Amino acid sequence: MPEEPARTVPEARTVLDARDISRALARISHEILERNKGATDLVLLGLHTRGVPLARRVADRIAAVEGAPVAVGELDVTMYRDDLRKQPTRRAHKTQLPAGGIDDKVVVLVDDVLFSGRTIRAALDALADLGRPAAVRLAVLVDRGHRELPIRADHVGKNLPSARAERVSVRVEEIDGLDEVTLS
Amino acid sequence: MKHLLSIDDLSVDLVQEIFETAADMHDVQTREVKKLPALRGRTVVNMFFEDSTRTRSSFEIAGKWLSADVINISAKGSSASKGESLRDTVLTVCAMGVDGLVIRHPASGAARQVSEWVDASVVNAGDGMHEHPTQALLDAYTLQRRLGSLEGRHVAIIGDLTHSRVFRSNVKLLTKLGAQVTVVAPPTLMPSGIEPWSKEAGFETSYDVDAVLPDADAVMMLRVQRERMSGGYFPSAREYTVGYGLTKDRLALLKPDAPICHPGPMNRGLEIAADAADAAQSVVLEQVSSGLAVRMAVLYHLLAGEEGSA
To answer: What share of residues in chain B are helix, strand, coil (percent, to 5)?
Structure first.
């Protein structure tokens, strides 16, 4: 296969290609099902921006296995971030919960990269304002380490040891036109 | 954006960004916990030197739902009634560490003047006969939700134009968003000097409601502001209604899906008949809930980000 030219920063190294991502999401989907013992009372919430399409894909896979649709929604945590004041005004996105809400459901948060853990901290606060789930779990495509808070993921696509200064970029078909994870 | 003083301060992009944020904020109204933490630790002061129910309470709820601390100061019962100057009142309040100042004042230009005195972000909640930008934003937001886009749509604004800051802000914003605007008023309530402005800004003027209504995609009725009139603008309330009110007969001239707006408070039976105010196409109450969402969006854009940022 001819080598593809680097798309953004030179020296960007592809760590997951489309097939790796697909396999990782398949595994995560099965793990979620196994852990939850089926898809009942399950709600998948994708975190903006790239967690949203990932959550949909996991939901589709679970639905294909279980033969019934899975509740899926999107969660925006902009208003709950602890660095709001340190940055120019961020654009908020839509939070959309499935019709059944999240009360007494098992909520699985889905995000692309787990890094400092601050986004997830914000997401947990946001969830508390939206209802009271029976349990909250976390699924991420990439865990790159460097946590700043006591937070860990329940389901990880790939553990990616990285230096703090390195940049992990996740691209997804639905938004960027291709599936890949690069390190630069 | 540091202050919101006039529609002139806003680019089309910024307006659409505020509308998108407002759409997100709209959902908060249906939530169980109506609270977002974005403005936690910020203080917003509503300073109203004129009577107001909906604008003041709307700003108050908007601030509270964003977790800001909100206090209200009205001219009655404040030191302003003891003869303190506006500048001293404002500086005193701001010395208490205020981040946002929402001000309504009977003098045109008061908000801009205040913004030059203080460090806080100033929102103009109505200055005399000049502007009322958040009202225009919520009107345009409501219409845009109803009509899709305002581009090329025909909006009729009818009523007491001379005394109306709502009309001034709305004309600026609607034409900015590409709408075709016709303003209608009795000759006595048509602002003097409107001709050059209408030519420059590209809107129409008319004295004939019945000719304008059938073509309108939306109609905005303005309140007859009796408190600003020293008399003599029209012979009687009855005559105003016959000539310029949105009566039951005129309702029939309107396209059945054309939204009817009114900034409130309505003088039922004067500029708008009960049949029109309560018609299925009336969006008066929708304007109120939109107003909350838009004001939340404005406060968010002014106060959430880092100091002095866009």
So the answer is: 45, 15, 40
- Domain containing A131 — which CATH number? 3.40.50.2020
The two three-digit tokens of residue A18, written as one number: 């489309």
Taking the CA atoms of chain A, what radius of gyration do you get in angstroms? 16
In a domain, A25, yes or no: yes
Q: What does the block give as tokens for B170? A: 């709305």
- Contact between B32 and A131 using a beta-carbon 8 Å cutoff: yes
For residues B259 and A161, give the distance between their C-alpha atoms in angstroms, rounded to a whole number. 58
Q: Where in the sequence is the domain holding A110, given as residue range(s)?
A: 13-183
pTM of structure: 0.88
Which residues in B lie closer than 8 A to residue A92 (C-beta atoms)? 21, 24-25, 300
Beta bridge partners, A137, equal A108
Neighbours of B16 (CB within 10 A): 13
A141, part of any domain: yes
DSSP string, B221-253: E----GGG--S-SSS-HHHHHHHHSB-HHHHTT
Contact flag A130-B33 (C-beta cutoff 8 Å): yes
Distance (Å) of CA A24 to CA A27, A141, A146, B271: 5, 7, 21, 65
Pairing of strands A42-47, A71-75: parallel
User: Tell me: the pLDDT tens digits for B144-200?
Assistant: 999 999 999 999 999 999 999 999 999 999 999 999 999 999 999 999 999 999 999
Q: Going by C-beta distance under 8 Å and a sequence separation of 6 or more, which residues neighbour residue B35?
A: A129, B28, B65, B67
Quote the number of domains for chain A: 1
Q: Which domains does chain B have, with CATH numbers?
A: 7-131+288-303 (3.40.50.1370), 133-284 (3.40.50.1370)
The ipTM estimated for the assembled molecules is 0.75
Q: Is B132 a known active-site residue?
A: yes
